[in-house]
């Protein structure tokens, strides 16, 4: 009976979409909400807060296929947020890398566009329990976007631009490589394309960026924390109790050592200030507070461990990640014997790494990826994994000197921002208006 219902639902959806494509009459004269209901007849659609320049905003809960090539595999609840301003405007597709939070993205403000924000499958509210891991692939996520865009293009017939940040930006590039004609322009922010399961290029950047004095200060900080581990652990236990953190998946001793190993990466990733790093005359409490500020415990406590499981699954099988530089502290490690981010991936599934997946995406981006605007910060370790477009490719890569993982278009100089706006106008056409960002 369930199979019959699924077939009937798919039949109705296909008829609805086909009729819209044939005449467009089914959408004419309807309110925006009614149009969404025609395009997504099985979705739960509800209004959400309207922000900024938008006129309407809705949350859609789609019945998304687990496997787009086998509908019989079932479905999951997939959360999408659509913010509408004008049918004649361009539309920005936000490919979130993780969970989605209804907000206005920078690029949407630049174009005063419509915005479609898609939560990544199996993250946030779109996470089924238990997770059917074999369907958590980038190719399945790409089919999610492709299906959604094909329907919404019946409403939004002007230019389409995809954007995303970090893992979401990586998703922009993956999607572009699979369906190069789905969007007119792609704007990935701080997006890595990682070569291996633990890419050493991030270590190379960490060990060369900034000054020798600053890098030495980072090492001394790491060593000081581990040399005072007993006192720091007491501080951590008090902090964990106050924050209601549990450490049953990763022991609190492991959590401390992993946070120390993580410290250099996070320091440069998020724009750490060398002058703020505590020195030997600082109290142990000051060291602990700074460790929490930079590395945090968000990943290592039980709640964070559960939250990031899908991410580490994807990193270990397709996306790759970074490793840890053990040299500065290997003589002081006790709880962590073989440091690896594999520690934070699920243990009951196949984690065989597909080394060719991202290489194909990189090859497309660097050699065929026209109309792509890249945004990076020079101090961000993920930037070490950025693609470099070939000279014959019509792409623009902007790297902010001294910038970090939080680098956005607004952070560039007026001259560089103008360079970005001019390129967007060139790619999108003269009829698309660009609205320069204001402080």
State the main characteristics.
9-stranded mixed sheet; 439 residues; single chain; 14% strand
3D architecture notes:
The chain has 439 residues and is an alpha/beta fold. Helices cover 39% and strands 14% of the residues. It contains 13 helices and eleven strands. It has helices spanning 2-23, 32-39, 106-111, 138-152, 167-178, 201-206, 212-227, 229-242, 252-269, 284-294, 302-319, 357-367, 414-428; strands at 44-47, 56-65, 75-84, 91-95, 114-118, 160-165, 185-189, 198-199, 321-322, 372-377, 395-400. The protein has a nine-stranded mixed beta sheet with strand order 1-2-3-5-4-6-7-10-11, sandwiched between helices. A two-stranded parallel ribbon has the order 8-9. A hairpin with an 8-residue loop joins strand 1 (44-47) and strand 2. Helix 7 packs antiparallel against helix 9 (252-269) and helix 8 packs across helix 10 (284-294). The radius of gyration is 23 Å and the shape is globular. The termini are far apart. Residues 5-25 have low confidence and may be disordered.
Beta-strand residue percentage: 5-15%
Q: Which structural class matches the secondary elements?
A: alpha/beta
Report Rg. Answer: 23 Å
Note the overall shape.
globular
Strand order of the largest sheet: 1-2-3-5-4-6-7-10-11
C-alpha termini separation: 58 Å
> How many beta-strand segments?
11
Number of helical regions: 13
- Could you name the ranges where pLDDT drops below 50 across 5 or more consecutive residues? 5-25
Mean of residue pLDDT?
A: 94
Helix content: 25-40%
Order of helices and strands, N to C? HHEEEEHEHEHEEHHHHHHEHEEH
Largest sheet: 9 strands, mixed
